[in-house]
Specification:
mainly alpha; 0% strand
């Protein structure tokens, strides 16, 4: 199994990883350690994909940006494994970056359709609203208020953190 795990970590693109995963599944070689490594490596490839395709700066990310990138990467893993591309996620990232993507989603969560619908790509607004609640300092006060109203978090406590 060590050889299989090493082979996974040497895979540099999605097509090869998906092909390797299918081969391992067909040969019944996926145990808990292999599944963990496949998931870890897929997540790393998804993050790398989003940074490149979303044209994000390679500067260190804030805590809110890291969490956003992780949420988006998890959706990309699901999409890529089903042989779909995360067009809406990439579109949002190119338009507003990581923080802008969260703000756009929370701002437009009234149910209205907007140009880059993250829910079509498997990213629920509640996940992004949770990031706003956890890191209110990083977001516009109106976005914090909107997230607070939808999640039922006390606005006063959140606004104290922003001040």
């Amino acid at each position: 199994m060590d050889r299989v795990i090493a082979q996974i970590s040497q895979t540099m693109d999605w097509e090869d990883l998906i092909a390797l995963e299918r081969t391992l599944a067909n040969r019944d070689l996926i145990d808990e350690d292999v599944r963990t490594e496949l998931d870890r490596h897929a997540h790393m490839l998804a993050r790398r994909y989003l940074i490149k395709r979303g044209k994000l700066d390679s500067a260190p990310f804030s805590a809110a940006e890291e969490e956003t990138l992780d949420v988006l990467a998890a959706a990309v893993v699901v999409l890529r494994r089903s042989q779909q591309l995360p067009h809406n996620i990439v579109k949002c990232l190119r338009t507003g970056g990581l923080i802008g993507t969260v703000e756009h989603s929370v701002r437009h969560s009234s149910g209205l359709q907007y140009s880059a619908n993250l829910e079509e790509d498997g990213v629920t607004r509640s996940l992004l609203e949770a990031i706003v609640i956890q890191h209110p300092v990083e977001f516009d006060a109106d976005i914090v208020k909107a997230a607070s109203l939808r999640t039922g978090q006390p606005l006063e406590e959140l606004l104290k953190a922003v001040s």
